[in-house]
Write a structure and sequence with these properties.
heterodimer, A: 247 residues, mainly alpha, B: 246 residues, 4-stranded antiparallel β-sheet, 9 helices, 10 strands
Chain lengths: 247, 246
């Protein structure tokens, strides 16, 4: 009970801090403009004459790649730079409670952005009869993938005091996870790594797990995959922060 | 009430604090003196549970900070160096957040926030965001955060650093007002502060305690009877020696 209250207090402050500065609004507008442009202009949503959201969800991994690191780069780097981490970690909360509060705030913030895309659903259902189950699955998959991106961004933010470094490193890590199964990326490893390692890296890719969710299949393996990425990154954040030598 | 046992901290090969032991009782204001880099901040960070010690421990109200950090953190109010605070928040929202993480709810929370604002004379800026405040107000906001839950133990790292003489006087007055019912540790490198507020002083140099006594006792160690001279004779030798080592 107390741990939920502690996590909740950190969560509330973090979420509020997004909306206390222009960051939230710039982010949300950027997210909507980008998804809108890519869906309607680049993948020609109308011209396809198909009432589904495949061209919409197709872009999510790429939009997240650019915007999630921007939304998460401050989670810990800013606390470390300004020294407020010293306040936060001398409050009667455990490190894990503080981490969970921040992670959930970051995740909900992205999910709010995702929820703001509802006009796309309205458009599709005005023009035709899309399968709402498939759309729902797509949204669940997209939200889960956003959580995985947020957890990666939080880990890199904990490693540095510089938000720029946190942004770049998390963008590269997310790109690696996104493209892990793609031949040009696997060939980077096939030359020197044993084949089991190459396959393991390929299996870490975000993409195949999102594709099955986009098709409307909620598979326990995909859920497990995204949740384990988050757990892994949260544990990594805990290790990084517990071993810091100063603020 | 607060007992520090053989506390040590190594950063790689550098020993920042080399086995510090002391204890402080209720009603005492302990001045923590030493040149920059002597290990004052590191020691305080270990007592408050921000940094894990390499060896040794601190017992706060009977609780071991290495075994039960959350219980220790509940008993301590801490003002870190440079008074960090979330600049985008208003003073009131910041203190409400602190009350939340300190587990205060409803009426208790409202009372604690209002009480801290009143004690630190922050009424006029309570709806201003912290980033827009002057250094003195920012310091007082962080001070308000430290005393919000009326902790039995108050630890302050250079609370008057960078303040003007009037603001210094205000902070010292606040410390004196609370001294009787609390254990207070104040770090400083301003020696006049020791006479102004402290009942006892510890001088730390290169990570070790080199003196521990009342201001009068320390003064008696020097022929001139001036704290500056005691401070210099105790810390200069060590500082020079450590530069040579390095």
């Amino acid at each position: 009970m107390e741990s939920i209250q502690n996590t909740g207090a950190v969560f509330k402050r973090e979420l509020k801090s997004y909306f206390e500065s222009p960051v939230a609004y710039v982010f949300l507008v950027g997210f909507l403009v980008l998804t809108g442009f890519l869906t309607f202009s680049v993948t020609r949503f109308y011209e396809r004459q198909v009432a589904d959201l495949q061209p919409f969800f197709f872009w999510h991994p790429w939009v997240y790649l650019l915007l999630v690191p921007a939304a998460t780069m401050g989670l810990w780097a800013e606390e470390r730079r300004t020294g407020t981490i010293e306040l936060l970690l001398t409050m009667p909360v455990t490190l894990l409670q503080a981490i969970m509060g921040k992670f959930l705030a970051g995740w909900l913030f992205i999910t709010i952005g995702l929820a703001c895309t509802f006009p796309v659903v309205l458009t599709a259902s005005y023009l035709g009869r899309p399968d709402m189950g498939v759309i729902f699955c797509g949204y669940v998959g997209s939200a889960l993938m956003a959580g995985a991106y947020v957890s990666v961004g939080m880990l890199t933010s904990a490693m540095t005091r510089s938000q720029v470094i946190a942004f770049v490193v998390s963008l590269l890590l997310c790109l690696l996870l996104l493209l892990a199964g793609w031949p040009p990326v696997t060939s980077l490893f096939t030359q020197w790594a044993p084949s089991w390692l190459v396959e393991a890296i390929a299996a870490f890719s975000f993409t195949p797990h999102f594709e099955s969710l986009q098709r409307g299949v909620i598979d326990a393996r995909d859920l497990t995959y995204y949740l384990s990425v988050m757990v892994f990154m949260i544990a990594g954040t805990q290790i990084v922060l517990a071993n810091r030598t100063a603020a | 009430m607060l007992e520090v046992r053989d506390l040590a901290k190594h950063f790689g090969s550098i020993a920042a604090v080399k086995g510090v032991s002391f204890s402080v009782g209720m009603g005492e204001v302990l001045g923590f003196l030493g040149p920059n880099g002597a290990g004052k901040t590191t020691t305080m960070r270990m007592i408050t549970g921000f940094l894990p010690p390499t060896s040794g421990t601190a017992l706060v109200g009977g609780q071991d900070v290495t075994r039960n950090p959350v219980a220790v953190k509940r008993l301590i109010g801490y003002l870190p160096e440079n008074a960090p605070a979330y600049h985008s928040m208003t003073v009131t929202n910041f203190l409400r957040f602190i009350a939340d993480v300190r587990g205060l709810r409803g009426e208790a929370k409202r009372k604690a926030v209002d009480g801290a604002i009143e004690k630190c004379r922050l009424e006029s800026v309570r709806h201003q965001s912290i980033g827009t405040l002057s250094k003195g107000y920012r310091q007082r906001t962080c001070f308000a955060q430290a005393i919000l839950h009326n902790p039995p133990i108050l630890i302050m790292d250079e609370p008057t650093d960078g303040l003007d003489p009037n603001q210094k006087h205000t902070v010292r007055q606040m410390i004196k007002d609370m001294a009787a019912e609390k254990v207070i540790i104040v770090s400083t490198h301003i020696l006049e502060e020791v006479d102004a507020v402290c009942t006892r002083a510890i001088i730390i140099s290169s990570g070790q305690i080199v003196a521990n006594g009342t201001p009068a006792e320390l003064r008696a160690r020097s022929a001139t009877g001036r704290l500056d001279d005691v401070f210099r004779s105790l810390t200069l030798g060590a500082a020079e020696a450590s530069t040579k080592e390095g």
